[in-house]
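Notebook entry, structure prediction.
Reason for the run: the old model in the group folder had no record of what sequence produced it. Starting over properly, with the input documented here first.
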Amino acid sequence: MLFAIFQRNTKSNAVNSSITFIGLLCLGLCPLPGTSQQPVPPNPDTSIIRFASHTIPQFRGGDKRMKSIIEENMQYPKSARKDRVGGRVVVQFVIDTTGDVADIRTVESVREDIDQEAMRLISLLKGWTPGTMDGKKVRVQYQLPLNFYPDNKWKKAYQEAKAREGIAH
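New structure, fully documented this time:
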């Protein structure tokens, strides 16, 4: 399991804004329907069971490059900032066999304008090395949570509320 937390504060129109990018980049290789991760039958000479070899997709440039693309391109929706709305959007997407991002959708929503921005940011993540299973390229599904905060005061209140609820942010 890969886990990364990135945070950046920015200034826009004299209003502090902050985005925390929490990357649960892959909770394991998650093949889509039609593929499965099955153990290789035991070697007849031993009682050891071998598992199929696999690699997860890697973003070219690594997590730091992914973080910078999201931070540099994030455009907090004006209406959401004005309404002081924020929260966590979980975006699900697939890295296909060519290394492209496909099938982008939200699985946890804040509201339409923020959800659209989260999906737009994911669509900018071009240039993945595809995942493989038994030496063959496979489609791999990811879920990536993105936290949106209209300002630092809102961010602090949001994090405190989630901590009281026992929810990681």
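Summary: Helices lie at 62-73, 78-82, 112-123, 152-165.
The old model has been moved to the deprecated folder.
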